[in-house]
Amino acid sequence: MCNVLLILVIVAYFLYVAGTLNAAAFRSLSDLRYLDMSGNFIRQLPGDLGVNLFRLDTLNLSANTLTHLDAAVFSAAERLSVLDVSFNRIQVH
Q1: Could you tell me if 15 and 21 are in contact, meaning their C-beta atoms sit under 8 angstroms apart?
Q2: Using CB atoms within 10 A of its CB, is residue 21 exposed (0-12), middle (13-18) or buried (19+)?
Q3: Is the Cβ–Cβ distance between 32 and 57 less than 8 Å?
């Protein structure tokens, strides 16, 4: 339970820099397996977000304001099996 609380505090503190997630907040969380960042008005993901999230199984980014996704963001997250980006503004070209 302590780890969950720590994750919530870190996400709340570092979440927004002009609508962009701050990847530095996740650098020490290499054991993280589930991350729910739904409903946070995130517009953009940093290119190095997934660098240390190689154990991440599930990432919920639903109900944000994302307009595009760069596959490179998730390149290190080899175990990622669930990515929820529903209810965003992503346009497929």
Answers
A1: yes
A2: buried
A3: no
Between residues 21 and 53, which one has the greater pLDDT?
53
Least confident of 3-7, 64-68, 69-73: 3-7
Residue 12 to residues 9, 38, 79, Cα–Cα distance (Å)? 5, 12, 25
pLDDT of 19 reads: 60
Q: Which residue has the higher pLDDT, 22 or 33?
A: 33
Instruction: Identify the H or E element spanning 60.
Output: strand 58-60
Residue 75: closest CA among 44, 54, 45, 89: 54
* DSSP symbols for 8-19: HHHHHHHS-BTT
